[in-house]
Q: What sequence folds into this?
């Protein structure tokens, strides 16, 4: 698939402080890319550079086929941004806000009006089209904000902490909206978030940045494989009964390295796929398997692993 | 250009709908009307008075020039002091600049909108003042007087644009609106009050009065006998020193656009200006003479507008967009 974002040694320094350090990043068309990192890691600075709003000190980047420095205006035709904690104009209605964005994109009146209606419908805000933004909840504002990013029919949207400050219901609504836009419209999304479970549920690929350096860039699917590679495989078991004999016998099953008991559950660590032999052994002891689940790595675990490696380095 | 006009259109809508602007507009209109009424009173009682003296009020009253000297800076600064930093604080700047427009469209649009609001205010105030006085006086301005009114309108607009440009400059330089409003007030007070005080203090210090008795022989004016009516002439040396001191004081005060505006506007109207609230109907120059004598002041006022706006323009283009803007 074609790269919508491609950076090469992208660097941004403010005096002696290097906010983004030789960043090489790729986002393919149709991906939802989760950009993770602690506060001050350089996520927002990267997004601002990719939007052509901040000039890189060194390096290059192509967004939607356009150079972010030489063709920054073209970049802003194909890319949209919803900044962190931002809001549109509180004294304007939802319709007026989107209309203003349409005007800034030089859209003819008829096209603009149709688009405003369509976008408000898409984000479920048609009934509040004529209400001022200042009367909206944070979740409603965020939905109108997302609609505003779609006014120009972009190839890619940068969402900086789109669920920050939202209650669980609004968070879920925004998450589902992002996924729907990606699924139905093929929209490429780059989003930053501190809510790692949100990113895990939403994103198809993640990048972890720390102190300006990209320390990981991988698809979620590959990450789980990478995380388990070289480590013991762990299977979580819930049985009708657990006896010391059963534990002893499980420990000698081929491929099993150790067995642990915790909170009424058994955890079998193995270096090969020994699930079948493990289940046979359990049944041979007259017990039944209520749950058998291979371990899934949470994004928090993945993040902390790479973050700690980077910090230690 | 499309981006500039879009931003200007939205800003104008904001300006004309803002309570801040409407209150000041209403106040200026009300005071302008009152001043014109007093001007009418003066013209009626003084045969041969010029129509344009409706803008000068009656002697010792609040004239149009004084209204603008006082409210002009407030109006200009009020429209400009948060033009850019408010967008930063609300996080709307990156949304607007994230659209395919040139970056200068934002600052140009904001200046255009402010300029349009101030021009509307000046033109409508002067038009309303003329509109209510013509029926009251029963005569209209002559061509020369009409041209003087046009010149006064343009000069006042330029004077207000100075303050708008300074306000926009502060809103570009300072990230917080509280800082830019403080600097705006400080600038207004410096040019309106501090320079006047400084002018008096410095001229007194640099040009001391001559030592000894400078009072000349007593003079009894015609029809005023006795001690109470007696006046004293002053020595030529004293007069010379006072003129020198006055010249220095004026030169220092001319560092302020307020002084330049006041002098030029008074010259256009053909009145002498003697500070806040006081005017002397002493000079009746033609418009050509007034403009000829004050071209340097007019140029200086225009240059201040250009320099202040150019500074904010350059600064805005160079400013980095940071997180949360």
A:
């Amino acid at each position: 698939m074609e790269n919508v974002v491609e950076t090469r040694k992208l660097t941004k320094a403010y005096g002696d402080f290097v906010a983004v350090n030789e960043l090489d990043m790729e986002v393919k068309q149709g991906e939802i890319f989760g950009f993770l990192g602690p506060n001050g890691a350089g996520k927002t600075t990267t997004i601002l550079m990719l939007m052509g709003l901040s000039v890189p000190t060194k390096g290059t980047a192509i967004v939607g086929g356009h150079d972010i420095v030489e063709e920054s205006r073209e970049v802003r035709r194909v890319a949209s941004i919803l900044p962190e904690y931002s809001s549109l104009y509180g004294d304007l209605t939802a319709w007026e806000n989107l209309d203003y964005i349409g005007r800034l994109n030089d859209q003819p009146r008829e096209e603009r009006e149709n688009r405003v209606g369509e976008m408000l419908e898409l984000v479920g805000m048609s009934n509040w089209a004529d209400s001022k933004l200042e009367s909206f909840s944070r979740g409603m504002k965020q939905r109108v904000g997302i609609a505003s990013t779609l006014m120009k029919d972009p190839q890619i949207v940068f969402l900086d902490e789109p669920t920050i400050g939202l209650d669980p219901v609004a968070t879920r609504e925004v998450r589902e909206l992002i996924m729907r836009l990606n699924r139905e419209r093929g929209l490429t999304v780059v989003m930053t978030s501190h809510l790692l479970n949100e990113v895990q549920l939403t994103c198809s690929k993640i990048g972890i940045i720390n102190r300006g350096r990209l320390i990981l860039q991988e698809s979620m699917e590959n990450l789980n494989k990478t995380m388990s590679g070289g480590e013991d495989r762990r299977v979580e078991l819930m049985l009708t009964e657990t006896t010391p004999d059963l534990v002893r016998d499980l420990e000698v099953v081929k491929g099993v390295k150790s067995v642990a008991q915790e909170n009424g559950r058994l955890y079998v660590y193995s270096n090969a796929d020994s699930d079948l032999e493990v289940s046979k052994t359990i049944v041979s002891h007259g017990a039944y398997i209520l749950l058998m689940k291979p371990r899934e790595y949470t994004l928090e675990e993945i993040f902390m692993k790479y973050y700690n490696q980077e910090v230690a380095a | 250009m499309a981006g500039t006009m879009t931003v200007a259109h939205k800003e104008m809508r904001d300006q004309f709908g803002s309570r801040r602007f409407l209150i000041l507009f209403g106040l200026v209109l009300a005071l302008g009307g009152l001043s014109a009424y007093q001007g009418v009173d003066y013209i009626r009682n003084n045969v041969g008075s010029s129509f344009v003296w409706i803008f000068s009020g009656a002697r010792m009253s609040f004239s149009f020039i004084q209204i603008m000297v006082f409210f002009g800076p407030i109006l200009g600064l009020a429209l400009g002091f948060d033009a850019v930093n408010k967008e930063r604080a609300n996080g709307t700047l990156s949304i607007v600049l994230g659209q395919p427009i040139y970056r200068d469209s934002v600052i140009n649009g904001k200046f255009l909108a402010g300029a349009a609001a101030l021009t509307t205010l000046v033109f409508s105030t002067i038009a309303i003042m003329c509109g209510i006085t013509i029926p009251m006086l029963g005569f209209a301005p002559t061509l020369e007087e009409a041209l003087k009114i046009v010149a006064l309108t343009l000069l006042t607009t330029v004077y207000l644009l100075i303050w708008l440009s300074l306000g926009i400059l502060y809103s570009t330089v300072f990230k917080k609106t509280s800082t830019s409003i403080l600097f705006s007030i400080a600038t207004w007070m410096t040019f309106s009050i501090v320079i006047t005080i400084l002018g008096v203090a410095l001229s007194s210090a640099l040009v001391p009065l001559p030592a000894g008795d400078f009072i000349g022989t007593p003079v009894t004016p015609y029809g005023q006998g006795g001690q109470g009516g007696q006046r004293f002439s002053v020595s030529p040396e004293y007069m010379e020193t006072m003129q020198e001191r006055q010249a220095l004081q004026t030169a220092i005060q001319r560092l302020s656009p307020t002084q330049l505006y006041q002098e030029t506007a008074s010259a256009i109207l053909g009145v002498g200006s003697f500070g806040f609230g006081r005017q002397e109907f002493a000079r009746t120059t033609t418009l050509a003479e007034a403009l000829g004598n004050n071209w340097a002041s007019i140029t200086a006022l225009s240059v201040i507008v250009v320099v202040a706006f150019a500074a904010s323009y350059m600064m805005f283009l160079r400013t980095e967009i940071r997180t949360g803007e």
The first strand of chain A starts at residue 3 and ends at 14. DSSP finds eleven helices and 15 strands in chain A.
